Amino acid sequence: MGTSISALAPFIPSDKALGESLLPDKAVDLNKQSAGLMGQLSPITLATLSQYMSVINSYYSNLIEGNPTPPHEIRAAQREEYSDDPSKRDLQMESLAHIAVQQWLREQSHDLDTIYSSEFIKELHLRFYQQVPESLWLIRNNKGEVVDKVVPGEWRKRRVDVGRHIAPDHENVDDLMKRFCEIYHPKKYQGDRKLIAVMAAHHRFAWIHPFIDGNGRVGRLFTDVALKAVGLESYGAWCLSRGLAKSSNEYKAFLAAADASRQGDLDGRGALTEKGLLNFSDYMLSTAIDQVSYISGLLDLKDLRKRIKSYVLARNDYRVPGMSESLKTNAILVLHTAFIHGELERAEALELCAMPERSARRLLSQLKSEGLLSETTSKSPLRWEIPEHAEPWYFPQLSPGM
Questions:
Q1: Cα 298 to the chain's mean position, in Å?
Q2: What pLDDT does residue 135 have?
Q3: Distance from C-alpha of 211 to C-alpha of 151, rounded to nearest angstrom
Q4: Domain 301-394 belongs to what topology?
Q5: C-beta of residue 280 within 8 angstroms of C-beta of residue 254
Q6: Are the beta carbons of 389 and 323 closer than 8 angstroms?
Q7: Residues 17-33, buried b or exposed e (16+ Cβ, 10 A)?
């Protein structure tokens, strides 16, 4: 018997259920906090942060799926420094594949009609798996036996069970995903309902389980791009996956609870539990608020200046691993101003050094050679950067080991 889209109802909680909940207020709060963070950042700084956070996002999204490759190993892979252990090397490459998809999403700036299409979702899966080692395409059962293989960019061709949930028959997936994209297209929602619909769609995507493998990563990438497209312009400077990974047991429990059938007349009018979807959407919005609030605090101008100062002082006390050269305290103002504006004209950078020109040029040269500033040409502005050795001071507790 076929599965119709009505099997996913309710698509979002009813107006009555939402009116009795905090979800509309949380959606408004998330929009407000995201806009506030956007107001803190220059476009260039946002671009730098988004590129940096792609490693963090990759780490946490893959961690949820059982790949614990830490950020320093991912960055080593970006330098083509791979582990001698083949399994660890494969996982490093999986992380790079996730980062590459994020970069593609940033560069393309897809519109809503493109994002909410089966073709786009298939392309997310295709681009991810095309760069993942083929050893990770193999699907194994509980005995370790190979039972299937991923076909990048293609819907699954067999039945799957996800915990206690039996996903819809594979023959229905194509129709379900087309209807999924129509139902959750943001043009169908107004105001706070847009964000609530994105969060509800995250569960319904997982419920359909359209691919034989990779649904978690692709689902989170889809939610990432959807959140930015519906108006959270600061998304990229923060990432939802960090919060989901840090509360992974809750994430998986809320997902599973929203799989349940309707529990009586007081549980909505759809085939699935409205209460479960309401609680899942609430968890997702709360997690997003927590993450944007956390990053906003890290990027507060006064506090970041203190952490830049702590980094420079740590350099001069030789407490920064791998860095043996001290750093003039004049660098604090240069680095902080570069963060505010994203980049500095060279004449301004020399002036901010507040020292004789020859000494100022030496300091700027050091900042460039150590990755604290970057340049595209010998005459280009100097851009603020986040080198690995500065991370623990700039962004404490953002990822493991900090």
A1: 17
A2: 95
A3: 9
A4: Arc Repressor Mutant, subunit A (1.10.10)
A5: yes
A6: yes
A7: bbeebebbebbebbbeb
The single residue listed with the structure tokens 């997936």 is 173
**CB neighbour list of residue 157: distance below 8 Å, 6 or more residues apart:** 151, 170, 212
Sequence-separated (6 or more) residues with CB below 8 Å from residue 146: 138, 139, 140
Backbone phi, then psi, for 139, in 5-degree steps? -105, 125
Backbone angles phi, psi at 190, to 5 degrees: -120, 150
Distance of CA 28 to the CA centre of its chain: 21
Residue 402 has pLDDT above 80, yes or no: no
Residue 149 pairs in a beta bridge with: 138
| C-alpha closest to that of 42 among 50, 54, 52 | 50
What are the tokens at 243? 């919060």
Structure tokens at 117: 């299409």
Averaged pLDDT for residues 35-53: 96
For residue 271, count CB atoms less than 10 angstroms from its CB and return exposed for 0-12, middle for 13-18, buried for 19 or more.
Answer: middle
Q: Is the pLDDT of residue 166 over 70?
A: yes
**How far is residue 306 from each of residues 103, 177, 322, 332, 399, measured CA to CA in Å?**
31, 49, 22, 9, 20
Residue intervals of the chain classified under CATH 1.10.3290.10 are 10-298
Segment 170-183 mean pLDDT: 97
What pLDDT sits at residue 60?
98
What letter represents residue 338's amino acid? A
Structure confidence at residue 3 as a pLDDT band (50, 70, 90)? confident
Cα 222 from chain centroid (whole Å): 10
Tokens for 151? 């076909």
Q: What angle do CA 309, 76, 340 make, to 5 degrees?
A: 30
Question: Does residue 225 have a pLDDT over 80?
Answer: yes
- Give the position of tokens 């030789």: 318
Name the CATH code of domain 10-298 (choices 2.40.50.150, 1.10.3290.10, 3.40.50.720, 1.10.1740.10): 1.10.3290.10
Pick the closest to residue 332 from 271, 393, 273 (CA basis): 393
Work out the mean pLDDT of the chain and round it to a whole number: 95
Signed CA dihedral, 49, 118, 215, 230: sign only: positive
